[in-house]
Amino acid sequence: MLLRTKLFGETHEFADVKEVLAKANEEKSGDQQAGIAARSAAERVAARLVLAEIPLGVIRQNPAVPYDEDEVTRVIDDAVNETVFGEITGWTVGDFREWLLADTTTGDMIRRVSTALTGEMVAGVTKLMSNLDLIHAAGKIRVSAHCQNTIGLPGTLASRNQPNHPTDSVDGIRATIYEGLAYGSGDRVIGINPSDDSVGSVSRLLEMTYDVIQRWQIPTQNCLLAHVTTQMEAMRRGAPVGLVFQSLAGSQKAMEAFGVSVAMMDEAYAMAQKYCWTAGPNYMYFETGQGTALSADAHYGADQLVMEARIYGMAKRWKPFQVNTVVGFIGPEYLYDSVQITRAGLEDHFMGKLTGISMGCDACYTNHAKATQNDIENLAVLLSAAGCNYFMGVPMGDDAMLSYQCTSYHDAPSLRQTLGLRPLPEFEGWMEDLGLIKDGRLTARAGDASFFLQR
Amino acid sequence: MSTTNSPDLEAVVRAVLRELGVAGTEASGGPAGPGGAATAGAPSSGDLVIDLPDPTLPEARRALGVVDPVDPEGLRNLCATTTARLGVGRAGPRPRTASLLLFQADHGVTQDAIYGEVPEDVKARFDLFTVRTRAADRAEYLLRPDLGRLLSDEARATVAERCVHGPDVQICVGDGLSAAAIENNLADIYPVIVQGLRSAGLSIGTPFFIENCRVGVMNDVNRVVDAKLVLLLIGERPGLGIADAMSAYMGFHPEPGKTDAERDLICMITTHGGTNPLEAGAFVVDLVRKTLQHGASGVRLRELTATTS
Ligand code: B12
After folding, report:
1. Residue A90 domain-assigned?
2. Cβ A447–B1 below 8 Å, yes or no?
3. Which architecture does CATH list for B60-115?
4. Which of A242, A262, A370, B124 could form a cystine bridge with A221, CB 3.0-4.6 A?
5. What CATH number did the domain enclosing A430 receive?
């Protein structure tokens, strides 16, 4: 295989597809940490020139980790629809970009092509897209899913009510849920990251959230983002689970570092269908984020965008209700500053949708990254324009346990009211009945947690 | 709720009343709108004096921002259950001015926590000597977690020379992402752990401190000390509300190649709204005993204990 181009009179040659993909990536501190990033802006563009000419079929033949060695590669490749793939195998990555952006290409046409894509193809085209390309193309694709309510309908923007507490106090978390509900946060899930991963504590919080949902007849689902094995044990013991959660990573080895495997997730998915109290048919919630494979030394020389796209390809297997990147969550070693976080947020959202999953974003940053609240508010606006299914809601954006900042309880209503979006329809109806929202705007009663002390 | 009032004016009024010692005024009724009752304390033009109390003091942080809550007392009680920023109220769908500015102030100071160093006397108290990882300085530490998981050559030699080989439990302390976590909590948690492990009849290795340290360093440490279990007390990344939380990570017989799937932890150890270090020390001892009893940690330990309970 010869992969080379001239640029400004200089020749740039690349050893293999993996190197082209890595060097074509937008600048990321994680790729630099891994020693695989382009060494100059010229080399980056040279890699893109070459990438634009590679046929999708060749990308499929060169996965980041060989088929025989890695179950993530196998899950993705085995799921490819060969008929559709036959139609696109000869497209170059450059052709693919223009096809996605063409006015004649509809969301339905893209959804059909999604059935034939692998993570490497998805990541490949993403590297050729500018930020506005990513927003425009993602805006065409809608992926909807149903559990107790319906996520992803055009014109809606949902919010996870994320009421974390440093010691998992039941009262503290309940109070925080009330605060969020009073702003219209919680339509996509009431989802708690536990600080104590024991079955007992996790079950207690499942009971409490279920009780709040029943008492107020809220059309939503609950979820405890403990390790999946903890949730499975809680289900076995009869705890009320609405959605089953797990963090996923892009190679078998990286999955192992998270203490999970495809077989384990198959089992969790089967248990969700058997034990969840919710209506389904979509029962799963996954989180992802660029850099996790490298962190587990399980990236196989591939860049973090490729490893991220592979997660989406795998996640599709379990028909998730919702998947979100937690972009900016780990720190500056993977995404250095607000420029990189913004870019990664747009990339991940687009890639998830192109893969065909219900996609949201935890737009966030840590205190050791060079970013501020303004930066993620910007990202939330950009992603809303791109038709992002949901964001997080946290009191003033300051998570009391995960020690990072993300979007506030205020932000979902602000984005909705600014951009003419609505909560999920069932949830909006519920808010209207309680008098918390009218014509898509918060009423005078909204924003007061003590409202929920009335029942 | 009225959103047409002037919240900054209200903040001034609130501040003045607080200084006069009038309690509870901030939640009562709220401002009546422009030109309403809220302007009562406004200074006359010409001799503007702005002299504000510190908004980061505990009582100022507890001020309710919700105008006309259904149940003011109930709302106060809800807010008291958590360190999360509840009861802040809103200006239209946006946060109010006071809570927005308080957030910005907190963000400013939290960033400093990353660059703190653990003072020598904190380590000396428990005879901890200091070794370093391969991360040369703080800047490199932040961008190269892989280097923070490996001891420097010098550190390896020092540990080999000074540490007992093959103990039941090797205790290490590391700065991680918050030196304040170690500075504020080590003195409380450390004696509880040592005493607990001793009364359990476990042998404890020679403890030491690791600068620029990541969780994964326990694998490299154990190449040298060969303990049954390594316990690492490390600073978590600082949050806005809590910037001094410590975690206790542990693994059964760590060695190169072992991952987080084979580790356990107890997190959010702090006196500022987390698990008290004295109490946490007892949890740590408990988890150490369980780990050694089952000869496994992480997901494997969870599997073993799920089927036996
Ligand atoms: C950052 C973080 C992550 C990152 C870590 C990646 C990275 N390279 O840094 C990611 C997103 C990958 C992650 C994943 C998970 N996490 Co986490 N994580 C955190 C967080 C917010 C901060 C940790 C920190 O400050 N570390 C200090 C620095 C100095 O350490 P470090 O060496 O740079 O990073 C290492 C640790 O952070 C460690 N780590 C992170 N999470 C976990 C979880 C477990 C069980 C273990 C053993 C290690 C571990 O992995 C890093 C690489 O070795 C804490 C919250 C907190 N208050 O501590 C939760 C926290 C530690 N995570 C938790 C959980 C449950 C998980 C998951 C199991 C969730 C899931 N269902 O998949 C997964 C998988 C963990 C695994 N086995 O690998 C719980 C643990 C509860 C408990 N008492 O056991 C915590 C306390 C809170 C939470 N609910 O998220 N996490």
Report:
1. no
2. yes
3. Orthogonal Bundle (1.10)
4. A242
5. 3.20.20.70
Kindly give the interhelix angle for A119-127 and A338-355, rounded to the nearest 10 degrees.
130
pLDDT for B305 = 87
Total-model pTM? 0.94
Decide if B248 touches A, using CB distance below 8 A.
Answer: no
Q: Looking at the complex, does the CB of residue B282 fall below 8 Å from at least one CB of chain A?
A: no
Residue A9 lies inside a defined structural domain of this protein: no
Kindly report, residue by residue over A415-452, the tens digit of the pLDDT: 999 999 999 999 999 999 999 999 999 999 999 999 99
Instruction: Judge whether B56 is closer than 8 Å to chain A, CB to CB.
Output: no
A450 touches B: beta carbon within 8 Å: yes
Q: Are A34 and A80 in contact (CB under 8 A)?
A: no
User: Average model confidence (pLDDT) for chain A?
Assistant: 98
Of A93-97, B3-7, B175-179, B252-256, least confident by mean pLDDT is B3-7
User: Ligand 1 pocket by C-beta < 6 Å: which residues?
Assistant: A 193-197, 225-228, 245-247, 257-259, 292, 295, 329-330, 401-403; B 145, 176-177, 214-216, 234, 236-237, 245, 247, 260-261, 263-265, 267-268
CATH no. for B120-308: 3.40.50.11240
- Looking at residue B34, its pLDDT comes to 42
- ipTM comes to 0.95
Q: Is A167 on the interface with B (CB under 8 A)?
A: yes
pLDDT of residue B308: 53
Which pLDDT band holds residue B35 (cuts at 50, 70, 90)?
very low
Give 3-state DSSP helix, strand, coil % of chain B, rounded to 5. 45, 15, 45
In chain B, domain spans: 60-115, 120-308
* Structure tokens, B222: 């154990």
Confidence tier at B139 by pLDDT (50, 70, 90): very high
Contact state of B75 with A259 under an 8 Å Cβ cutoff: no
Asked whether the beta carbons of B39 and A135 are under 8 A apart, the reply is: no
Which residue type is seen at A280?
G
The answer to whether the CB atoms of B86 and A395 lie below 8 A apart is yes
User: CB A444 to CB B2 under 8 A?
Assistant: yes
CA-CA distance, A66 to A76, in Å (whole number)? 12
Answer yes or no: is pLDDT of B22 > 50: no
Cis peptide preceding A281, ω within 30 of 0: yes
Residue A85 pLDDT greater than 60, yes or no: yes
**Selected residues 96-115 of chain B with any CB under 8 Å from a CB in chain A:** 99, 103-104, 106-107, 110-111, 113-114
Q: To test the ligand 1 pocket, which listed residue (B118, B265, B269) has its Cβ within 8 A of the most ligand atoms?
A: B265
Count of domains forming chain A: 1
Helices (H), chain B: 7-19, 58-61, 72-79, 97-113, 120-124, 138-143, 153-162, 179-199, 217-225, 277-294, 299-308
Which chain A positions have a beta carbon within 8 Å of B144's beta carbon?
33, 333
From the list A175, A403, A445, the residue facing B82 with the nearest CB is A175
> Which ligand 1 atom sits closest to the C-alpha of A196?
83
End-to-end CA distance of chain B: 52
Q: What's the mean pLDDT in B17-35?
A: 43
Domain B120-308 in the same topology as domain B60-115? no
Query: Which of A65, A71, A64 minimizes the C-alpha distance to A264?
Result: A71
Q: Which domain holds residue A257?
A: 145-453
